[in-house]
Write a structure and sequence with these properties.
The chain is 41% helix and 17% strand. It is an alpha+beta fold and 510 residues long. A four-stranded mixed sheet has the order 1-3-4-2. Strands 9-8-7-10 form a four-stranded antiparallel sheet. Strands 11-12-14-13 form a four-stranded mixed sheet.
């Protein structure tokens, strides 16, 4: 009993001491904070050190970050600013988070602007299916060969995306169709027996990937026997196949005239814009144009529909080493445009709709978000990469600048210039470029000249094509500022009175 009583007195004493300690801490909070830091501070610091960033910022989920969100997380907390609510009336340049795949908008929700409504004309691939008897099928099987099989061919996914959308059997048939087209073999027995849908996809892939096959028409035929096996494929060629050598010479000459001008520029973006502008200058939209589904109609005939614009753009950019795809879909009616790959991603380009006054760049280098109210992809084109590039995106401010004068072009006074600023000779142009570069020095910037005639503008284009501009002014300018390398793009805006505003975007490095 004495032992139990002693334990009881001990517990009572401990309780009294603890109560006293609590009272002292309540009267002196600094003491309790110091004790807490000693007991738990090291463990808390270690736990926070190991805690993932996503746990520290539960208000932001990683998968929902836009590039701007991700960048703001790298700022120290004291520098972060409270997010401002964007003006709902000024959302023209606000892009949604990027998607890894293309999301097709609802075609019923598309709204086509009046100034481009009807500027379409793409014809989907037409298949002519014929059912034949087993007896006829057996006869054809004995008489008809495979023609060219295309065995050993391969196609780079970066430049020929449609080929790489197919399965192995589809690729086998694609190679055969391509090889027989090159050989002008109109009829052959397919190396693979595919369904009608897969046959269509293989032919569509060949057509979409190869604008250089300008003599291949958009229709083909298949003869099927009762069990669904295709026995014969029949290709159709347009009339350029009848005198192919002459047609090819004309096609190459017209294409090279654009390629040589673009090739003088140093960046893919500059080349892309140059080709876009040349097609607008050289080609007119005409729904009745001949062979208007081909690049030939645009480059040689000078008139076409959307398909011809897009296939000409595709061909020239591919020759320049820039991936450019033929994209088909719906824009009020069947329509075709391009997808172009630049260094930061893919962009939509609709040369047909840009060949429209005003608004030369309204549909140039746009994202899928920009196109969501006017364009919807169809068929295999939905598998093309999504267009999320932003570095070269033509925003609304630029478009407004290009279309500022609704009834005509901008004037010198609109850009703060006078007639005294206009240049009329190539030597004066060289002199002005040299002085502006020396004045600005090395680095990345832009400068402008005002060119007084289209003839002088063509001289300048020729100087860049032949690289005469290098000894004309660039070598001396680079030497004067102590630079070692340079890149340059040229952008042209036509002003009222046949005056051209030539903007140079230059990067002079050491």
């Amino acid at each position: 009993m004495k032992v139990i009583k002693g334990i009881g007195y001990g517990l009572i004493g401990l309780l009294v001491l603890l109560t006293g300690f609590i009272i002292v801490c309540a009267l002196n909070p600094d003491m309790s904070q110091n004790l807490s830091d000693k007991l738990y501070g090291r463990e808390r610091a270690a736990a926070e050190e190991a805690e993932p960033a996503s746990k520290k910022r539960p208000d932001k989920e990683k998968n929902d970050q836009s590039p701007l969100d991700a960048a703001s997380h790298d700022l120290p907390e004291e520098m972060e600013k409270e997010e401002e609510t964007p003006d709902p009336q000024d959302d023209s340049n606000i892009l949604p988070p990027q998607s890894d795949t293309y999301v097709s908008p609802s075609e019923s929700d598309l709204v086509i602007p009046d100034n481009v409504a009807g500027k379409v004309g793409y014809q989907p691939i037409r298949e002519d299916i014929t059912d034949i008897s087993d007896e006829e099928a057996e006869k054809l099987s004995k008489e008809l060969g495979f023609g060219e099989t295309g065995d050993g061919l391969d196609f780079d996914a970066l430049f020929y995306p449609y080929y790489n959308m197919l399965d192995d059997q589809g690729k086998h048939l694609y190679r055969q169709i391509y090889a027989n087209t090159l050989a002008f073999n109109k009829s052959f027995r397919p190396v693979e027996s595919l369904s009608q849908k897969d046959m269509l996809n293989s032919f569509m892939a060949v057509f979409n990937d190869h604008p250089e096959l300008f003599y291949l028409d958009t229709g083909y035929g298949c003869k099927f026997k009762g069990d669904g096996t295709c026995i014969e494929v029949d290709l159709t060629f347009n009339k350029t196949a009848d005198d192919y050598n002459n047609a090819k010479a004309q096609f190459d000459n017209k294409a090279k005239a654009i390629i040589s001008g673009a090739d003088a520029l140093t960046t893919d973006y500059g080349k892309e814009q140059y080709v876009h502008d040349r097609l607008i200058d050289d080609v007119s939209y005409q729904i009745s144009s001949r062979m208007n589904q081909s690049a030939y109609s645009a480059l040689v005939n000078g008139s076409t529909v959307c398909a011809g614009y897009a296939r000409a753009m595709q061909y020239v950019l591919m020759e320049l080493g820039i991936p450019c795809y033929y994209c088909t879909g719906f824009a009020g009616e069947n329509h075709a445009w391009n997808i172009v790959r630049l260094d930061d991603g893919f962009y939509n380009v609709d040369v047909t709709w840009d060949d429209n006054e005003p608004g030369k760049y309204d549909y140039f280098n746009k994202t899928d978000y920009d196109y969501a109210t006017t364009h919807a992809r169809r068929d295999l084109s939905v598998k093309l990469p999504p267009c999320n590039g932003t570095k070269y995106r033509t925003d609304n401010e630029q478009s407004d600048q290009d279309t500022q004068m609704i009834t005509g072009m901008r004037r010198l006074e609109d850009i703060g210039k006078t007639e005294n600023d206009v240049i009329y000779t190539l030597n004066d142009y060289y002199y002005d470029c040299y002085n502006q570069i020396v004045d600005k020095g090395a680095g990345e910037y832009s400068f402008e000249n005002l060119i007084g005639s289209e003839a002088l503008l063509n001289e300048i284009y020729a100087a860049y094509s032949t690289k005469d501009y290098i000894h004309g002014y660039m070598d001396n300018a680079v030497l004067a500022v102590g630079a070692g390398t340079y890149d340059m793009d040229l952008l042209v805006e036509e002003l009222e009175g046949h005056i051209f505003r030539l903007t140079h975007r230059i990067n002079l490095g050491y």
